[in-house]
Amino acid sequence: MDRCGEAGPEGKENCSSEPCKSTLKTPLKQSATSHSVLAEIQSNSGPLTTPPKLKEIPLGDPWTPTTNLKILISAASPEIRNREQKKGLQDSRSEILEAKHCLQEHLSGDEYEKSQPSRKEKSLGLLCHKFLARYPNYPIIGESNYICLDEVAEELTVERRRIYDIVNVLESLHMVSRLAKNRYAWHGRHNLNKTLQTLKKVGEENKYMQLIQLIKKREYENEFELDGEKNEETATKTIGINEHSEMCFIELPGMEFRAASVNSRKDKSLRVMSQKFVMLFLVSTPQIVSLEVAAKILIGEDHVEDLDKSKFKTKIRRLYDIANVLSSLELIKKVHVTEERGRKPAFKWTGPEVLSDIQGTKPISTVSTFVPSNSLEPKPSKEQCSKNLFPTRGKQIFTRHPSLMKLVKSIESDRRIHSAPTSPVKTSTTGCDQNSSTFPSKMAHLAAICKQQLEGQSSELKMKTKLTSNLECNLAAPESILKSETYTTSPSPSLVHSLGVLPLSHNSMSPVMLPHPHAGVSYTIYLHPSQAQTATTYSPSFVLQSVPCTNVTGVKTALEVNSKVPFSKMTTEEGDGNVVKDDTNFLNAKEKKVTKIESTPRSLLKRSQALQENSLIKKCKHGQKSLGVPMGKSVKNERPSSRALHVDTEVISFQERGQIKFEKLDQNMECCCDKERREGFPEDGSKTNNTQERPVPFAVHAHEALFPSGYLIPIARCTQHSNETTFSNKEKAGICSLQPATYSSPITGVIPVTASELTAVNIPAFHVSGNPVLQSLPISPKAEHVNTVSENVNLQQRKVLKNESQIPDYELNGKSVAVIPLQQPSVPAKPKESQVVTENFFRTPGGPNTIASLSSFPENSDRVFQKTLTIPQRKLEVSDD
DNA sequence: TTCTCCCGCCAGACC
DNA sequence: GGTCTGGCGGGAGAA
Q1: Residue A444: pLDDT band by 50, 70, 90 thresholds?
Q2: Which nucleotide is at minimal CA–C1' distance from A302?
Q3: Is A179 strand, coil or helix?
Q4: DSSP string of A678-700?
Q5: Which residues are CB-neighbours of A724 under 8 A, at least 6 positions away?
Q6: For residue A103, what pLDDT is reported?
Q7: A158 touches strand B (CB under 7 A)
Q8: What is the pLDDT of residue A289?
Q9: In this structure, are strands A511-515 and A522-527 parallel, antiparallel, or unpaired?
Q10: Of the ranges A15-29, A247-261, A351-365, A629-643, the best mean pLDDT one
Q11: Could you tell me how far CA A447 lies from the centroid of its own chain?
Q12: Are the beta carbons of A693 and A800 closer than 8 angstroms?
């Protein structure tokens, strides 16, 4: 593959002179030349780094100028090439056969066996090299580049089974596509870049990076605790990766599977595994992924309960298979990560730099869980997105019935337009690039309309706000919908919030309006479209209405919510200086992504609610039925999972408490409202920014929060909107305090909130705790960072939020509720620790400051950290092999 | 001893 | 019923 190397997306130079047509059979010299191929490959910098190109070069032919000329001519003229190759093919075949016979005649027994290719020479990687050498990196489009598996297997003298392995991985990268039985089409690297971009995007949306970090964190924890297999298993379960949304094969438009037969057994397909594996690299920083972590993630997405040793080993085997092919493609390179436990095999991404910002490219997931096939979103590819070529295990089929599609489309459009006056425009800022770019023109049009209406009325809204600000800030008023939540956590409660708008600073989730049938209030939760069904199933009172936000996954939500600080810290922990920078960028990028959800007038809500209820419940029934075990398990597992996550929850609470301490109780609504007025409706750009800085609003009916973690992604913020009417004051308080306070810096203010008060908070932790993402919060081993928030992060945040130092607190039923700005350093003072925590990738984050900082926190909360504090720094090094 | 991963059984899907 | 696909894990070579 290095012949073209990583020519990059633009590098269309067809540097390969290989035949473009698979019909041009590779001379059967392969087996006879395997040694030479291997030698050639190994003689280079690394194993399997040199593409063989044997076919072009008849055995024995040196790379002479004449040869090159022939190759060039051949490449230029398919006809000539074909003629030449057919000729060469026949010649070489006969030569090989003769040589083989000769070999057998002259050698016998051990000698012959020794002459047989060694295990290494039969490796999948080498085989893949041979395979790739048959075809050009960039085949001429339009030419028929067919691959006949039988022929290839024969020519490469391997059983077809092996070819499947290669083809499956190549297929995952859209380098080949299946045409029919035993027949594939070769696309070369034409689609590679696009595929990688798509995969990266999907990986980001699925928060694979956080998952990786989470797993590592857990490993650290386990390492210094029980250090037992069981413990590890538990930890993995706890992580919730198993509950991470499943996703199946990601297709590119026009690259969908043509044969239904391929859609079977896809859930464990090498294709899907390969894509996920690649995603891990694309979202990691640095782009090094250990097999162990990859295996855990892959297993987690399948069945946690299956996480026994054999499963793990099997996964590792498969990963090796995939890695071999990817290595042949020169996309990854094997390295070793050395840590205290010893050397761990890992792979480093050596492929092209991939930008996740893909314009106009929308991944097509064969499973609705992957890309939010937001049924309510009139995307051009919606049908494709929601189509379920691959019923996942359990035979899930989430394809929405056409009639329902139409219905929800109508509802969505209706809702958008009508809610515009009081809703923040769903601005498609840079952060929404991914999504917006993929939005159909219709959506764009609707958004534009809403935006115009909004802007036109922004001034009016401001006026309204002034008049009603005080009332709106009154949380005690149960009837006020969408009103007060905003204050509870929003660093800059916006006018929009107070007016019932549900601002979402989460572009990648699928915000869902949950009008509560009984309370008449709406909740906004983020969940995966497919999960929405599940959620609905368990909470009939919920009506899930997807909002056009593409990305999604459970993990995402919580992560995103906390991404501002916690994750940045986290990332920082795992990375070096550069990583920190990258992460910052990452944060910035994330911050740019803003998705606002329009508030829905009650009438509309009810209406849509009714409609949706019908359709969704039906769908859910179906989904439940089809989901069968998974769903049941999800729910059942939720509790154990939540329990297991208790530590995390505690940490979160702890952080919250810490943060609460620093909040001023005497912050009043006026401040809040004033701030809102000040920041109410800035320009588009600023509006977006502000929104981004705001905590993601989220409200969940505590009693019905029985969603499987990872499926329901509650934005654990005491949110603003929401119709907490259904919440008891206590619950409200709990929810509010539940917010994963990311700023637990001891230097922040203190809010006299009693422990008991906080205790009540943990109810909804419920989902939060179950959410794998939240676990990614800088807790435990990384708890140190809670108080050592990377200064650059703080600075960055301070820049944006410097004006939001005043955080109002509210009183709910006599209990003070701290309003904790999520993305805002609630610290009036500057961080005393200026040193940036620059943890190395595989280094356990830790620091002397940890203890000190923790010491200022309540005892019970510290408990969680105690053990992690003892975790020694581990020195990990990555070494190429 | 652990890491790698080849090999081929076998079962589901397809024809 | 035959063939195609590909999940899976035993077990052996390599490190």
Answers
A1: very low
A2: C7
A3: strand
A4: HHSS--HHHHHHHHHHSPPP---
A5: A475, A478, A484, A485, A521, A699, A731, A732, A735
A6: 55
A7: yes
A8: 85
A9: antiparallel
A10: A351-365
A11: 26
A12: yes
Q: Distance (Å, rounded) from C-alpha A98 to C-alpha A101?
A: 5
Tokens of A241: 């990766």
Residues 76-135 of A with CB under 7 A from strand B: 119, 122-125
Q: Which residues of A582-609 are buried (b: 16+ CB within 10 A; e: fewer)?
A: bbbebbebbbbbbbbbbbbbbebbbbbb
The pTM for the full model equals 0.43
Strand B–CB A73 distance below 7 A: no
What secondary structure does DSSP assign to A211-230, as a single string? HHHHHHHHHHHHHTTT-SHH
Separation of CA A321 and C1' B9 in angstroms? 18
Q: Show the DSSP H helices in A628-723 as ranges.
A: 629-644, 646-662, 669-679, 684-693
Range 828-867, chain A: CB under 7 Å to any strand B atom:
none
A540: confidence class by pLDDT, cuts 50, 70, 90 = very low
Q: How would you write A288-300 as a 3-class SS string?
A: EEEHHHHHHHHHH
Mean pLDDT calculated for residue range A577-598: 31
Q: Which nucleotides in chain C have some atom under 7 angstroms from a protein Cβ? A: 4-11, 13-15
Measure the CA–CA gap between A367 and A382, rounded to whole angstroms: 12
Please tell me whether any atom of strand C lies within 7 Å of the Cβ of A430.
Answer: no
User: pLDDT at position A101, please?
Assistant: 53
For A114-265, where are the E strands, in sequence order?
Answer: 146-148, 176-180, 183-186, 250-251
Q: What is the spatial distance between Cα A323 and Cα A330, in angstroms, rounded to a whole number?
A: 10
Adjacent-strand bridge partners of A18: none
Q: pLDDT band at A115, cuts 50/70/90?
A: low
Positions 177-196 in A, CB within 7 angstroms of strand C: 178, 180-183
Give the mean model confidence (pLDDT) for residues A686-700: 32
DSSP assignment, residue A830? P
Taking alpha carbons only, the member of A297, A300, A274, A289 closest to residue A345 is: A289
Decide if A735 contacts A700 (C-beta within 8 A): yes
Q: Which residue has the tokens 């299946």?
A: A178
CA of A293 to C1' of C11 (A): 25
Per the structure, the residues numbered 265 to 304 in protein chain A that have their CB within 7 angstroms of any atom of strand C are 265-266, 268-271
Q: pLDDT tens for residues A648-663?
A: 323 333 333 333 333 3
Instruction: Note the CA–C1' distance, A369 to C13, in angstroms.
Output: 41
Among A82-91, A329-338, A355-364, whose mean pLDDT is lowest?
A82-91
φ, ψ (nearest 5 deg) of residue A496: -55, -45
Give CA separation, A143 vs A73, A193, A316, A541, in Å. Answer: 17, 21, 38, 56
Separation of alpha carbons A366 and A356, rounded Å: 20
What share of chain A in percent tops pLDDT 90?
0
pLDDT for the residue A20: 33
Alpha helix locations (H) across A694-783?
A: 729-738, 755-759, 765-770
pLDDT at A799: 35
The backbone torsions φ and ψ at residue A737, rounded to the nearest 5 degrees and listed phi first, read: -75, -15
A354/A348 Cα distance (integer angstroms): 14
Do A356 and A195 contact (CB within 8 A), yes or no? no
- Band (pLDDT 50/70/90 cuts) for residue A309 is confident
Is-cis flag, bond preceding A286, omega within 30?
Answer: yes
Residue with the two structure tokens 């074909």: A82
Q: What is the pLDDT of residues A453-484, one digit of tens each?
A: 444 444 444 434 333 333 333 333 333 333 33
A540 in Cβ contact with A704 (< 8 Å): no
**pLDDT of A791 above 80:** no
Give the HSE-up count for residue A428: Cα atoms under 13 Å, Cβ half-sphere: 20
In eight-state DSSP terms, residue A139 is: P
Is residue A337's beta carbon less than 7 angstroms from any atom in nucleic acid strand B?
A: no
